Amino acid sequence: MSTSQTSEKASFFATTRWSVVLAARDRGGRDAATAMETLCGTYWHALYAYARRHGLSPHDAEDATQGFFGRLLEKDYLQAVRSERGPFRAFLQMAFKRYLAKERDRTLALRRGAGAPHLALDFLADEAACAQDLPQLPADEIFESRWAIAALGAAMAALREEFRAAGKEREFEVLKAALSASPEGSSYEELAKALNVSEEAVRVAAHRLRKRFRHLFRVEVAQTVASHEDVNDEVRHLVAVLARG
Q1: DSSP per position, 57-120
Q2: Whole-number Å distance between alpha carbons of 180 and 226
Q3: How far apart are CA 209 and CA 185, in angstroms?
Q4: Number of Cβ within a 10 Å radius of residue 116
Q5: pLDDT tens-place string over residues 209-224
Q6: pLDDT per residue over 59-89, tens digit each?
Q7: Nearest of 96, 31, 95, 85 to residue 230 by alpha carbon
Q8: Where are the alpha helices (DSSP H) in the chain?
């Protein structure tokens, strides 16, 4: 591998938060709590859906998710990271399973507002989306499906923000249709008319958009694995999960 390739890989993985999560086991990891809270804020949907599929009511699933994050953000569970390894997805799912098992005989509602960290999560909105999956999928599959969707959503949000910062929000809103499929013929023509540019210009722009989105998706996934070598495996896994849906 050339020096430039090595540098590119190092730069790519330098954005990861998982390394900070690992460091959070040590008291010196001053940025670990913020990084962990950001990851939890992105991927809590998967845990909430998992709890609902295991029979918890919306109220108890909300309390369980918040209570679990309270424990997690207090670094109680991070001591298990050494043995868990693997992607953050696997660590979080296993830790949540253990948490639910320990809390099964307790009144989860008593944990609410007990001084633990409380994330501002929109459980009401997520319940509507979660309800569509509950009858069809086992809990583990719901968890992975929600995780994959959250990763896509985070990448899409990052891409939208890049266009917004460049003053190209309208261009993004028009071109984003190219992310779900490869438009041909009249579809490219319609996009070109909407942007008042040539069809060839739209083809080039759509190609660049898809390429950038793939990169941002990989960056998001890289934030949830322990090493750069794990990124490809995790990307393949999440794409397979999305394909199942």
Answers
A1: -HHHHHHHHHHHHHHHHTTSGGGGHHHH-S-HHHHHHHHHHHHHHHHTTS-GGGGTTSSS----
A2: 29
A3: 18
A4: 16
A5: 999 999 999 999 998 8
A6: 888 889 988 988 887 766 777 766 566 888 9
A7: 85
A8: 3-13, 18-23, 32-53, 58-73, 81-84, 88-103, 123-133, 139-165, 169-175, 186-195, 199-222, 231-244
